């Protein structure tokens, strides 16, 4: 006599974690992030990542090279020009900037400095843009305690004098603990970090010396280097960077912690690391760390509060997320496009990226006899149900549909998609379920949602019974 069908919880929410062996774990979370729910319907829920609401339209030749807030105004180097972007999202041209690569900018409240990694240095005082010569083709500029710090192409760090003029004082310091080359300096929590290819040296201001800087010997970090000069950013809590060996690292209190998983390392090993861009953004009280790989057209994101990873993609062709620079200005998180002069607001109530459909996707963790303590047991599936927010349609989308597909071969291939309605606005559907008659030893479910509406995923279940071992 056949066993009876029973309803089994099927965990719907989780991070991206694709094992080198897909049957072990083929999980993907794309364009959705987790939220912990104390005393909620479930412990964790997935929401769509905020969309990109266009605030300013540019042209392709004016690709973003960097943004900076100076004297309460937003400035952007785009293409070959410096612009001031008003709070009404119009551009005011300031002048020409040499080069085509990402720039570095810092200010002391009176003067903003722009360096271009070999194509010139500039100062701007709010009225006049001046081409100048600071150091030996500096690639990066930082500011701390009334001084500018410049990364020269000779491997030294030049230090400005104290005051409003950002000229070099004639004094330098350089990494000392190891012979590896300087990649860039980075200022965090009143400390100047010298990131090399294999080491990180923290330096601090002291009361005397030429320059008045002293290496913090007990805090030197060995065997960890920086992949590229744009591969680092910080939240209030910690610095995050891509190491020279392709690992995502959190650096807090002089202690490095590798945060990339084995699954991520397996994916990232084929990426180009040298041009990686790392950025952070605080949205909806969560800190997101965003790792973009321009050469490979890939973007990954990490949630600091939860230690979980997800993927960001643009459009249905799964291209790189559009953001090149993220900056908080005019009380909004603004995102500059890496390929055009467009400027966007990162908006939780926008469900597209620059009016382009985004694909929210979740591939569940595998379900098999091992889950229930009966290895390689065969099961029969008769029903799959999902709990998500319903009644989310709008006048633009009369029948929002959720696509469901199944894999019974270890997530190597998936069935044709079945589309289920999740309800027009006000049509709160109690059941979103798919009837199916599948036999499996390894089951994986994939959900895809492409509608321009809100989407939140809570939980799921399967109705199954044992089906023998043959």
Mind explaining what this structure looks like?
The structure is a single chain. The chain has a domain at 6-49 and 361-466: Galactose-binding domain-like (Jelly Rolls, Sandwich), CATH 2.60.120. The chain is 1% helix and 50% strand. It is built from one helix and 45 strands. The two termini are 16 Å apart. The mean pLDDT is 92.
Oligomer: single chain
- The CATH homologous superfamily of the domain at 6-49 and 361-466 is named Galactose-binding domain-like
Mean pLDDT: 92
The end-to-end span amounts to 16 Å
Report the β-strand fraction as a percent range: over 45%
Describe the secondary structure blueprint for this structure.
Blueprint: E1 6-9, E2 17-18, E3 26-30, E4 32-36, E5 44-48, E6 51-56, E7 64-70, E8 73-78, E9 81-85, E10 91-96, E11 104-107, E12 112-115, E13 121-124, E14 129-132, E15 140-144, E16 147-151, E17 157-160, E18 168-173, E19 182-188, E20 191-196, E21 199-205, E22 213-215, E23 221-222, E24 232-234, E25 239-242, E26 248-252, E27 255-258, H1 262-268, E28 277-283, E29 286-293, E30 298-303, E31 308-314, E32 319-320, E33 323-329, E34 332-337, E35 343-347, E36 352-353, E37 356-357, E38 360-363, E39 367-368, E40 379-388, E41 401-407, E42 418-421, E43 433-440, E44 442-449, E45 456-466
Antiparallel strand pairs: 1-45, 2-3, 3-38, 4-5, 5-45, 6-35, 7-8, 8-9, 9-10, 11-12, 12-13, 13-14, 15-16, 16-17, 17-18, 19-20, 20-21, 21-22, 21-23, 24-25, 25-26, 26-27, 28-29, 29-30, 30-31, 31-32, 33-34, 34-35, 36-37, 38-44, 39-44, 40-43, 40-45, 41-42, 41-44
């Amino acid at each position: 006599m056949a066993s009876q069908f029973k309803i089994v919880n099927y965990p719907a929410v989780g991070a991206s974690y694709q094992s080198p062996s897909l049957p072990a774990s083929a999980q993907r979370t794309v364009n959705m992030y987790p939220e912990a729910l104390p005393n909620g319907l479930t412990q964790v829920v997935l929401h769509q990542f905020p969309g990109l609401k266009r605030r300013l339209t540019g042209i392709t030749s004016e690709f973003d090279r960097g943004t900076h807030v100076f004297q309460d105004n937003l400035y952007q180097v785009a293409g070959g020009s410096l612009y001031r972007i008003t709070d009404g999202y119009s551009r005011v041209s300031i002048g020409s900037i040499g080069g085509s690569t990402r720039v570095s900018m810092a200010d002391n409240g009176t003067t903003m400095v722009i360096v271009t990694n070999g194509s010139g240095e500039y100062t701007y005082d709010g009225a006049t843009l001046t081409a100048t010569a600071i150091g030996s083709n500096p690639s990066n500029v930082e500011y701390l305690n009334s001084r500018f710090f410049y990364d020269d192409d000779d491997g030294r760090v030049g230090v400005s004098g104290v005051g409003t003029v950002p000229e070099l004082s004639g004094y330098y310091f350089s990494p000392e603990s190891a012979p590896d080359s300087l990649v860039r300096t980075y200022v965090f929590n009143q400390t100047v970090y010298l990131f090399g290819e294999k080491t990180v040296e923290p330096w601090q201001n002291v009361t005397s010396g030429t320059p008045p800087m002293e290496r913090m010997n007990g805090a030197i970090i060995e065997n960890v280097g920086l992949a590229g000069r744009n591969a680092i950013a910080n939240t209030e809590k910690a610095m995050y960077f891509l190491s020279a060996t392709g690992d995502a690292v959190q650096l807090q209190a002089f202690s490095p912690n590798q945060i990339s998983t084995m699954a991520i390392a397996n994916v990232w090993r084929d990426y180009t690391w040298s041009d990686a861009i790392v950025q952070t953004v605080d949205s909806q009280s969560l800190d997101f760390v965003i790792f973009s790989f321009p050469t490979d057209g890939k973007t990954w994101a990490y949630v600091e509060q939860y230690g979980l990873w997800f993927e960001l993609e643009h459009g249905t062709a799964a291209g790189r997320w559009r953001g090149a620079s993220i900056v908080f200005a005019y009380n909004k998180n603004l995102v500059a496009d890496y390929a055009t002069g467009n400027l966007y607001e990162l908006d939780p109530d926008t469900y597209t990226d620059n009016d382009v459909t985004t694909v929210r996707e979740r591939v569940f963790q595998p379900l098999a006899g091992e889950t229930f303590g009966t290895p390689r047991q065969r099961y029969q599936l008769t029903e799959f149900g999902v709990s998500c927010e319903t009644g989310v349609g709008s006048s633009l989308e009369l029948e929002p549909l959720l696509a469901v597909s199944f894999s019974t071969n270890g997530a190597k291939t998936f069935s044709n998609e079945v589309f289920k309605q999740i309800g027009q606005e006000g049509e709160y559907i109690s059941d979103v379920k798919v009837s199916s008659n599948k036999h499996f030893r390894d089951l994986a479910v994939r959900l895809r949602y492409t509608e321009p509406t809100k989407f939140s995923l809570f939980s799921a279940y399967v109705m199954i019974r044992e089906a023998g071992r043959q």
